[in-house]
Every structure is written in C-alpha cells, then in structure tokens.
Amino acid sequence: MEKLHKLVIIGDSAFAQVAYEYFTHDSPYEVVGFSVERAYLKQEALFGLPIVPFESIERHFEPAKHWVYAALVYTQLNRLRARLLAQAKARGYRAASFVSPHAVVWRNATIGEHCFVFENNVIQPFCRIGNNVVLWSGNHIGHHSIVRDHVFIASHVAVSGFCDIGEYSFLGVNATISNNVTIAKDNLIGAGATILRNTKPGLIYGVKPTEANKSVTANVYFNVPEDAG
User: Fold this and answer.
1) Which of 57, 77, 129, 224 measures 20 to 30 Å from 104, CA to CA?
2) Among residues 161, 173, 164, which one has the least CA distance to residue 136?
3) Which residues have CB under 8 Å from 165's CB, separation 6+?
4) Pairing of strands 146-147, 128-129
5) Distances (CA, A) of 208 to 8, 174, 183, 188
6) Counting Cβ atoms within 10 Å, is residue 118 exposed (0-12), middle (13-18) or buried (19+)?
7) Which residues of 172-181 are buried (b: 16+ CB within 10 A; e: fewer)?
C-alpha cells in the first residue's frame, strides 16, 4: 500500500507496538517515530525508530507534515488517550485513524477521527462511531447503534441494535448489550457481563469470576489408566 502520510505514534507500550504493525503493513501511513511523556521515557528507540519526549515533539516532527495516533488503552477510563490526543491537536497535529480492510463497515455507517478498528469487526447499517474510539478485534456493533467519543470496546463484544454507548466507557471481552440499551457515561462493563437494561453513570457492571470447586483428580471421569492411548 502506498505511503501517503508520515505518522508519529504516541506511546511505546504493547498497544503502540500493535499499532505500529497495523499502520506499517495495512495502511497509507508511514510510521516515522514514537513519543512519550518525558517522565515515562525509558528507551531511545523502538523498531529502529526514535522515541522522543512528548513535551518537545515539535522539535523532531513538524506538525504540518506529520499525523499522530495516541496508542493508549483505557487508562483512567480512556482519559489519558483523550488528553494526549487533545494536546497533540492543539499543537497542530492531525489525528490518524486505522480501519482494518478486514472489518465490515456498512456503507452508511460513520466513523469519527482518531479511531482504531481492528479486523473482524462488524459495524452494521446506520451506526455512528464517535471520535477516539477503539474497537479491538471481532466485535459486533448492531444497526442504528451509537458509540460515543472516547470509548474502548474489547474483543468479541456484542452490541445489539439501537444501543447507545456512553462517553469514556469500557466494554470488556465477551460482554453482551441487549437491544435498545443505553450504557451511561463512565461505565466499566466487565468481561462476560450481560446488560439487559439502561445503566447509571460512573458504575462498574461485572460478573463474578469462575472459581474452581473441586480437584480434577477427585473426579472419577479423569482417572485415566496410565497405559491409555
């Protein structure tokens, strides 16, 4: 794919490394460097590219000639990613997005700026995806649903039709949101949770983790003879 834009990735953690792979091999962006806040600058380079202090990023990468992507996850309920994006834009940088060519995005669905949509996402007709949204791999966003700004949706989440996902919320792996449900602002929906009615702002909705209740060795069905094939 022809490289049309030079890109600086904000961050150097696992998500930044993943973002580098996708932007490099499946997008029109050429990654030319990384940037982190000076207090967190622990190394000088990543993938052979420089890591520069965010406080002085303009000295290394001219805003008029470079785009940025803030590759941060849901730290502080997505506020760290939102803050660094806002600061970069205020300094003249344009916000890059990645939408995998292996995602299904219906023709009249809309996606805002600074979004990262991984492979195997399905975004159905009449959906609206806001700004600064991350859709990790394999999610279903049902028809007429809205995902508002600064949301992070982990893998294999099922959002049914006519849902409204509130700003700054996080939806964990395998969560299920029923039809016509509003997820309020600042919600943390835990892995495997099933939400059947509207939620209230600033709350955690989770399920208890599975716990072991007996040893496998105590179960007769697992007492297999040593010479069994």
Assistant:
1) 77
2) 173
3) 145, 146, 147, 148, 151, 153, 159, 171, 177, 183
4) parallel
5) 40, 14, 20, 14
6) buried
7) bbbbbbeeeb
Please give the Cα distance from 55 to 52 (Å, whole number): 9
78 close to 132: Cβ distance less than 8 angstroms: yes
CA angle 40, 41, 46 (to 5 degrees): 125
Residues 77, 112, 78, CA angle at the centre, nearest 5°? 10
Where do the domains of the chain lie, and which CATH numbers do they carry? 5-96 (3.40.50.20), 97-206 (2.160.10.10)
Tens of each residue's pLDDT in the chain, 229 residues: 799 999 999 999 999 999 999 999 999 999 999 999 999 999 999 999 999 999 999 999 999 999 999 999 999 999 999 999 999 999 999 999 999 999 999 999 999 999 999 999 999 999 999 999 999 999 999 999 999 999 999 999 999 999 999 999 999 999 999 999 999 999 999 999 999 999 999 999 999 888 887 766 655 555 555 554 4
CB 30 within 8 A of CB 6: yes
